[in-house]
Design a protein that fits this description.
Length: 377
């Protein structure tokens, strides 16, 4: 059956920031060489989205496949060989995206260690946020050259979900070589029917997914559903669409999806607030009356000038309480350790680096990492 048929156009979920995952099969020819054939439409989607005031982070596979087209066939087997291929192909991959976009492209290579270690996680998030603020398009890939686990099946699908949570994306867009999710594998089952919308991911959904999708890639529909599950846990919706179909991609740029929409059980902000409210705090930051009012009524970030002290011992990335000495009214993620907070308390943000010798930014707790405590769940 024609996979493009049967999917009824539907609105994309509202979004300002998205992560776009692009698989190897969309960027390489059968012999492994990089090609712009499908990337052109996807780059146009990114450009049109940026023109509309939106932000896009690209998670792009293709480095190993691109490197394979440059190496001697007898020297590209085994894990060391694949890691070498990633090193060869990564520069070509970034060059491809830069050639298709008129704004600067920034290469960001991550491993799971970067995302499991809390301080490195926060550093990666701060870097990606700053790159977006600078008007660039970050192109994220796994650092396959030095990481072993990252060459496993479909890992970039899951990496995309992690990056979506990392940058507080509103939606995860997965460009694939199929039109969306089907009741069976449409390549082998003529009775396969498209699945338009999944209100909440269930285990039964995985039964419709197959294994690896293509020779060039490392993942299939199952890993995409796993990624959607991770994104949903963070309150982020996922959409699957055919990245080979320029008309489908053009409709996407106009706010219309022709593919599968996998909904999250709650909004991104609700998921984040729930997590902050129910995560045991490690310590406490005390603030003055002006900071307390700004945090509770104006949705402000906590700056060092409003801090009067810190209780307990916490590290950067820990969840802490915020109070005024009498009432605890907020929780948030600390950008500085307790010892640092005590040293920069009451100071202007411009003095942070002079006092500490380094700076993780001007906020003690950023407003995106802060929730005020009330009666809501």
């Amino acid at each position: 059956m024609d996979q493009a048929q049967g999917f009824t156009p539907q609105p994309l979920p509202p979004w300002h920031r998205a992560v776009l995952k692009v698989g190897s099969s969309l960027l390489t020819t059968p012999d492994g060489a990089l090609t712009e054939v499908h990337a052109q439409a996807l780059a146009s989607f990114v450009a049109r989205s940026r023109d509309a005031g939106r932000e896009v982070v690209i998670v792009s596979s293709g480095a190993v496949a691109a490197g394979r087209g440059l190496a001697r066939p007898d020297r590209s087997t085994g894990l060391p060989g694949r890691q070498a291929l990633a090193a060869l192909g990564q520069t070509r991959l970034v060059a491809l995206w830069q050639g298709l976009l008129s704004v600067p492209v920034a290469q960001v290579l991550l491993t799971h260690d970067d995302l499991r270690h809390r301080r490195r996680y926060l550093n990666a998030r701060a870097t990606l946020r700053e790159l977006l603020a600078l008007g660039t398009v970050p192109v994220v890939n796994e650092n396959d050259t030095v990481a072993v686990d990252e060459l496993k099946l479909g890992d970039n699908d899951n990496l995309a979900a992690i990056v979506a949570a990392l940058v507080d994306a509103d939606v995860l867009l997965i460009a694939s070589d199929v039109a969306g999710l089907f009741t069976a594998d449409p390549r082998t089952d003529a009775q396969a029917r498209p699945v338009q919308d999944i209100p909440a991911l269930a285990t039964s959904s995985f039964a419709t997914a197959g294994g690896a999708g293509s020779k060039a890639g490392t993942g299939g529909m199952r890993t995409k559903l796993e990624a959607a599950t991770k994104a949903a846990a963070a309150g982020i919706e996922t959409v699957l669409f055919d990245g080979r179909d320029p008309a489908c991609v053009a409709r996407l740029a106009a706010g219309t999806l022709t593919g599968t929409r996998l909904r999250a059980p709650q909004s991104r902000m609700a998921a984040r607030k729930y997590w902050l409210r129910h995560t045991p705090p490690i310590g406490r930051v005390l603030v003055d009356a002006g900071a307390a009012q700004a945090l509770q009524t104006r949705g402000a970030s906590l700056l060092p000038g409003g801090v009067v002290g810190a209780e307990g011992e916490f590290t950067r990335g820990d969840v802490i309480e915020i109070g005024d000495g009498q009432t605890v009214f907020a929780r948030g993620i600390a950008q500085y350790a307790a010892s640092d907070v005590r040293r920069i308390a009451r100071l202007h943000t411009r003095d942070i680096e002079a006092v500490l010798g380094y700076s993780y930014g001007e906020t003690v707790v950023h407003r995106d990492d802060l929730v005020t405590l009330g009666t809501e769940p």
